[in-house]
Amino acid sequence: MNDGSTGDGRPVPGSRWYDADAGPLVRPYAMTGGRTKPGPSNVRFDLIALVVVDDHPPGTAEESLLGPEHRSLLTLCRAETQSVAELAADADLPVGVVRVLLGDLLEAGFVKVSRPVPPAQLPDERILREVIDGLRAL
């Protein structure tokens, strides 16, 4: 048999046998076509960057040309806005693969990505406490 077992279900010695719980075994480089960087513009996706489906995505004909992993990410993004880390966890894919696939979707116009605010641009905690104290004093 071609499933790595003898006719009675025992594994053939020296064969690699994976059970149904292992799922499909596709190497990450096969999903990304050997690429390790997202798209020709080398966009960098932070783990906390938020991904949402574009308001005016390409048509269903273009979407049908996408691979199954691309479509899976689109389905997850349609359900709700998610971070890159959440998408990787929900799709059960390595973060590096998700970044490459998101780069493809971004370049094709299927998704939009909002960058997180850099910590240096966030207000100082001391200033926020002074504002709160001032509001309480009113």
Give an overview in words.
Helices cover 41% and strands 7% of the residues. With 138 residues, the chain is mainly alpha-helical. Strands 2-1-3 form a 3-stranded antiparallel sheet. Helix 3 (68-79) crosses helix 5 (95-108) and helix 4 packs across helix 5. The relative contact order is 0.16. The mean pLDDT is 76.
Structure class: mainly alpha
Strand order of the largest sheet: 2-1-3
The count of strands amounts to: 3
Helix content: 40-55%
- Taken as a percent bin, the fraction of beta residues is 5-15%
Please write the string of helix (H) and strand (E) elements: HEHHEHHEH
- Average pLDDT score: 76
| Uncertain stretches | none
| Largest sheet descriptor | 3 strands, antiparallel
Amino- and carboxy-terminal Cα gap: 81 Å
Number of helices: 6
State Rg. 22 Å
Shape: elongated
Provide a brief overview of the structure.
With 138 residues, the protein is mainly alpha-helical.
List keywords for this structure.
single chain; 138 residues; mainly alpha; 3-stranded antiparallel β-sheet; 6 helices
